[in-house]
Amino acid sequence: MYLPEIFKKFMEKHSEIADAYRKVGDLCTEAGPIDLKTQHLIQLGISIGTASKGGVRSHARRALDFGATNEEITQTVLMSMTIVGFPAMIAAYGWIDELLSVREK
């Protein structure tokens, strides 16, 4: 699994906080009936709303790993436009385009 260098550095330097962060994430994942693909599509949408390039790429990759199609990823991005606006959507569209292009090679 890809992790940005800064995140790896944080995890090494602050391992107790990183462990607590992972535990909270695990608890949220297990808190209800939503399947992992859908959870990552939801998190993709949230990442678009916060303009998090890393979050967009990470959750798109993980949604794909759990069975999402390129079309589902693209639709999630397009749906964000009416909530977060065109600039945020088009930025995410570019990040996703890069990700999907690399995965296709």
What does this structure look like?
There is one protein chain. With about 100 residues, this protein is an all-alpha fold. Helices cover about 80% and strands about 0% of the residues. The mean pLDDT is about 95.
Domain unit count: 2
Number of strands: 0
- Percent helix range: over 70%
CATH topology of the largest domain: AhpD-like
Q: What gap, in angstroms, lies between the N and C termini?
A: 18 Å
- Shape, per Cα inertia axes: globular
Which structural class is indicated by helix and strand composition? mainly alpha
| CATH homologous superfamily label of the largest domain | AhpD-like
Mean pLDDT: 94
Which segments are poorly predicted (pLDDT under 50) over 5 or more consecutive residues? none
- The percent range for strand residues is under 5%
The profile of the biggest β sheet is:
none
Shape-level CATH architecture of the largest domain: Up-down Bundle
| Radius of gyration from the alpha-carbon trace, in angstroms | 14 Å
Could you name the CATH class of the largest domain?
Mainly Alpha
Number of helices: 7
